[in-house]
């Protein structure tokens, strides 16, 4: 029986052969294009660049007018977090408004990651239709992009050139492209993860350099919070200090307003921070406000509304937990949280805690050296200078008895009095040198100075503390504050002739203020500037000031103020 081709005329046969040859040539050209596409995709290691290339190449391979790649989010729901498109200009995108989130037909491919070809998008029962200003689209091809067994996202192609439908060959080509794209995307993600790890390592090295360098004066906890927030891409970070889970305090904040008074009043006994301090294990939550274990501080402190949060311990395996470092993102930026490897901030926090311990050890060593110098200076002043002044005073007293002129005798007596006053000043300085060695409690030291002043004033000055004095007056400030108080009480005793002296040490907001007020006769016109100058100098070296108000018969007011330093882990 003759075949159908034998009955066809020569022209028809020739057309059939040419058509088949052209199809073979087109297929070979498409395969070459696919191979070139895989090679060019692999040349780009940045994830954004890879995704944009995939969309453009897919559109070219199957002659689609529009193409897009929807990247799935990492949180619950697995909806689209990124939508990369090709074929529409910026004006069209702006008119359409929000990009798809992964509902309707796009959601079906997310829930059922299998290739899907349609003749008409609108005819599918799960189609939501298009928003206003969206270009018309009919033919459709969707293919999942997989990385091993995990679906990374989906390729969407619409509007086949010439108005036809996407063919089975188109589907095969796009499936092959998606398989190759999965490998390239995984390489790009690994590259990004490596880059992030390098950033964390650099931040750790920077923290070690800053906290262990003797030349650099930085706030340790603020530096930890700032660097961690920057590297993690977090919106807010903060540090909570305290080795006891029931006595934690919020110390520093980065990325949000820091209201010191409100921070001090927070009760962190039932919070993620207390949980981490108790267990020593990091905690991560999807939504800070919704988690029953968490204390949402956003409203209390006026921070932006926070969602995903990571809390890691600030401690070492041998030194215990001294506090926590928290990183938080707003709900709009939750994908940064899902992209974060939680082991990185945990390792950073452990190294930061170690650096803090080294920094404190260095400070203790420096403090010990200072105390040794103070001991030496105190011994030299007591054993040499005071004894010599005392001997000179005795000699002058003997000379005064031999003086025949009353004026000469009076001058010698005044010189002896000046020597006695100088000896008292030196002894007071020796006491100030060692005042902080006996106790680090500033309230006890201030109380002791006021009690000692009672012996010379013949009455006890009133004393009042306001605000968190113990926690806000740090060790570097205490010696100057005590020296100023000692000088002010000495002046009141020697010059004022007062019947009442009031001492107030107050911490209000960001300021520490020491006030000494008496109801005496006021300062004389010829008062020596040396004592006042020393008090003013001690204020200025901490960025503060000294106010001295005095009127004849109306008493004297000394107000010494300095900015409150930021706290560190005690």
TrEMBL record:
CDD domains: HATPase_UhpB-NarQ-NarX-like. Pfam families: GAF_2 (PF13185), HATPase_c (PF02518), HisKA_3 (PF07730). Keywords: Kinase, Transferase, Two-component regulatory system. Residues 481-566 form the Histidine kinase domain. Gene3D superfamilies: 1.20.5.1930, 3.30.450.40, Histidine kinase-like ATPase, C-terminal domain. Residues 519-544 are annotated as: Disordered. This is GAF domain-containing protein. The lineage of its organism: Bacteria, Bacillati, Actinomycetota, Actinomycetes, Propionibacteriales.
